[in-house]
TrEMBL record:
It comes from the Eukaryota. Fe cation binds at residues 213, 286, 357. This is Olfactomedin-like domain-containing protein. GO terms for biological process: carotene catabolic process. Keywords: Iron, Metal-binding, Oxidoreductase, Signal. Its cofactor is Fe(2+). One of its GO terms (molecular function) is metal ion binding. It comes from Capitella teleta. Residues 1-19 form the signal peptide. The keyword Cell cycle does not apply. Binds 1 Fe(2+) ion per subunit. The keyword Glycosyltransferase does not apply.
């Protein structure tokens, strides 16, 4: 995620600072931005901006973490305890005619309106929004539900990735739709309501998770994938699939599918027990790889629980804690799909792994090479990115791992998953 890159850069900068402890500076960094900067003047220390350079460099950023400069053991939920769950902002540098202007701006959303209504005092507002992995105040979220969902504004803006779709730009997280954005002025311009009707699937189809990061061909074709549940047979029975699709002219088209089997939601007891058949549960993906001719899905052993789509299933939990669970004993699987016709070429089980980002992927001399950032398990999300661990400087290991797939027999050549990835 972009926030992971920010964290690494922040930690590197701390060694250059003087006069304050690293912990003090971290607490300030993970606190609150009090006001917007709109069209702020940027001064140059040296050199000049070329007049031919026009455009906007934009990032997702965090505006509110709450009371992180005080005791993190507060009896009230007055700070965001996970890196992914802040109140979002847009941060950009706009280049135009040899000049640069800076924007650091809250979006015009219901979440921001509610926070401002409490005079930006999170001791009063609590963490009222539904989160991904951070603790939130369930009672406050329920009390403010009408305010959170009130139109015409949206509750929030997705803030993990940016997708270039034709001549427009959308902010995305890991949902099937994003938010059109005016990146030059850091403003919201409506939901990405595509021209297709749920990709041609029957009514009742659910897209439950989508890699945050797409691939884009030189001609502008966007490639992505999603975890899909297609209704089949009796009510509550769904076909569990991975869908590979493209976006052209704001229309999504299915290129290929990988079907895992049927899930029957009638077995969901409503007591928090996850769906029992692991083989029919899809593995989480934050990103995927693409070469000239193939899509490679690195599906992890962090498995989605289809019981989550049942009504009132564990509503007190953040989304990921309710939806995904790590199974060390379950294989991760590399799926290879041919781009030209969507044909599944290989399904390769491996030792359980967790991939965040792709570094490179290409075909050469009869092999596919996929370079990834790889982890032994999902702790990078569920443990290491909590603020308590960040403030304690708890170390973690990221492996740069190369998967090599032989295209003659579609086997994975032995790789070195390090001691931490052995069972």
């Amino acid at each position: 995620m972009h926030l992971l890159s920010f964290l690494l850069a922040l930690v590197c900068c701390l060694s250059c600072s003087h006069g304050r402890s690293e912990l003090d500076m971290l607490r300030v960094a993970y606190s609150n931005v009090e006001k917007d900067t709109i069209d702020g003047e940027v001064s140059l220390e040296s050199g000049e901006i070329p007049h031919w350079l026009n455009g906007t460099f934009i990032r997702h950023s965090c505006g509110v973490f709450g009371e992180t400069e005080s005791d993190l053991n507060s009896p009230i939920v007055n700070y965001v305890d996970h890196l992914f769950d802040c109140l979002e902002m847009g941060t950009s540098f706009k280049f135009e005619d040899g000049k640069v202007s800076f924007y650091n701006r809250y979006y015009d959303t219901n979440h921001v309106d509610i926070f401002n209504a409490y005079n930006q005092n999170i001791n009063e507002s609590k963490v009222f929004w539904k989160t991904i992995l951070a603790e939130f105040d369930v009672e406050q979220n329920t009390n403010l539900r009408e305010n959170i969902t009130a139109g015409p504004k949206v509750a929030m803006i997705d803030h993990v990735a940016w997708w270039r779709i034709g001549d427009r730009v959308a902010a995305y997280s890991e949902g099937a739709k994003g938010f059109w954005m005016d990146i030059h002025n850091v403003e919201y311009n409506g939901r990405t309501d595509y021209k297709d009707t749920i990709m041609g699937y029957p009514m009742g189809t659910m897209f439950v998770s989508n890699p945050a990061h797409p691939h884009i061909d030189p001609d502008g074709t966007v490639w992505s994938a999603c975890l899909t549940y297609v209704p089949v047979g009796p009510s509550g029975v769904y076909s569990s699939r991975y869908t590979i699709y493209t976006i052209v002219d704001e229309t999504r088209s299915v290129v290929g599918e990988i079907t895992l089997g049927e899930v029957d939601l009638s077995v969901c007891a409503g007591d928090g027990e996850p769906y029992p058949d692991l083989d029919h549960r899809q593995g989480y993906m934050h990103s995927f790889a693409m070469t000239e001719n193939y899509i490679i899905l690195p599906t992890s052993a962090y498995l989605y629980d289809p019981c989550v789509v049942a009504e009132n299933y564990r509503p007190e939990l953040p989304f990921f804690k309710a939806s995904f669970k790590w199974y060390d004993e379950h294989d991760s699987i590399l799926y290879v799909v041919r781009r030209s016709d969507g044909q599944l070429m290989a399904s390769i089980p491996t030792t359980a792994f967790f991939v965040t980002h792709q570094l490179n992927s290409y075909e050469q001399d009869g092999s596919i090479y996929v370079d990834t950032l790889l982890y032994a398990n999902a702790d990078i999300y569920t443990y290491n990115m909590h603020l308590e661990q960040i403030f304690k400087d708890i170390p973690y290991e990221t492996y740069v791992e190369r998967f090599t797939i032989d295209m003659e027999d579609w086997t994975l050549r032995p790789f070195s998953p390090k001691a931490a990835l052995t069972r």
